[in-house]
């Protein structure tokens, strides 16, 4: 059993107000540098990409956070678009570094075949604090909606709207970690005034398909490629992963648009959310980064073959 590390705030059974959210934010501490670990790497890729600033977040005493995407240098409006996103949840490290690894080592294989847009760190404040939420205690990955109250989600939403109908594939890179059960799900229950119900953490890589637009062959192609890098998660004894029915090995489904999830913002035919487990004794951080990059490569390869 994973020991809970979240320190309770507020009154049990009562949703947080502004005071509790302020107390929660005051506990968060910067633990790493978005500028050093992400922005500096973007600037090493200028031969193949343009670095596009698509927004900026002003978080007062915590500073200002410019939001960047890599845009293929030889953009051709006649070609379809592929969107890669990482760091929607800032603490999910391999989402960020897997997206950067794909841009560095794999993206060149798609030049002249499609237009690449890569937003590697959607939530830089949370990246620095190794957290799931933004400073307002909002989860960006439940807020990809029009006029979103979450600045991270709104900025990416606004960037993507002119590309709706042009994207053929969108892959959103995530992790499921022990801290989900130790900290983030207990915090979510406290924030919303609900009881915390412990869950399980899948050991391995899995995908979240769109229940409104299922693409099983697409998901299978990604898992087949990733299985050469790291293990695919098995279901729990009840046939579920994180409480959702398994529809194929290492695949579950969510209604992406209905839930305001990032993978639902483009209207693309081929969409998925990846999940790796960096706390597994069978996987290293480097392996998780590579699994993410390989997943992106497989997703784009499949989508192009179907065009």
TrEMBL record:
All residue ranges annotated as the Peptidase M14 domain in the record: 30-307
InterPro entries associated with the record: Peptidase_M14
Domain of life: Bacteria
Catalytic residue positions: 307 (proton donor/acceptor)
UniProt record similarity statement: Belongs to the peptidase M14 family.
Name of this chain's protein: M14 family metallocarboxypeptidase
Native species: Thermomonas beijingensis
Lineage: Bacteria, Pseudomonadati, Pseudomonadota, Gammaproteobacteria, Lysobacterales
